[in-house]
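Title: Prediction job returns without error message
Component: structure pipeline
Severity: low
Priority: P3
Assignee: unassigned

Description:
Job completed but the reporter wants confirmation the result is attached to the right record. Sequence as submitted:
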Amino acid sequence: MIEIETRSDRRVIRSLELMEHALLHILKEEGIKGLTVKHLCKTAGINRGTFYLHYRDIFHLIEETSFFQGLLSVFEPFDLQELMNHLDQAYPPITNAFQYLHRHANLFKTLICSGAPTELRERLQYLVGTRMYENFRQNQACMNDKSELSEYAVAYLGNAQFGLIQHWFMTDHAIPPEDIARILTGFIRKSSYLVD
């Protein structure tokens, strides 16, 4: 019985790997426009039933891939007060985030800068922008009655960061991740009135 379960687990793992590889291949070769369930299943050599056994839709697949899960881990909410202490230096969590984006540049450029569906772009915008400032929103709400200001500050910082990332990709990440991280750290520090 254990052997059958192990074999079954191996088949599941293999199917998931095939779908992730097919997703990456399609995005690299054809961009987001070529990404459909039918095309993905054909490329992966699986049937649609197998796809829907594991995922609701293409967006669910993208969110469950290892590269997307890695994105979640590097774009964790951070402490803005700690960032303010990094004078003329990049804040290490921001540097880590840009290094991760740089390692997976072709994929993220396709998802961020192309004609990606609105649902996917909004999800990415939240993850690479707004999510990093969740601690700020929570701290402001607890400390005083600036909840309206904090909502606008989070929107400002999140959208500005996403725009900076888009521009970096559209210019083929012409400057190194460490330098763009230093620039973003400086921009956030100059917006320090938001955390007063």
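Comment from assignee: result matches the submitted record. The two ends are 61 Å apart (CA to CA).
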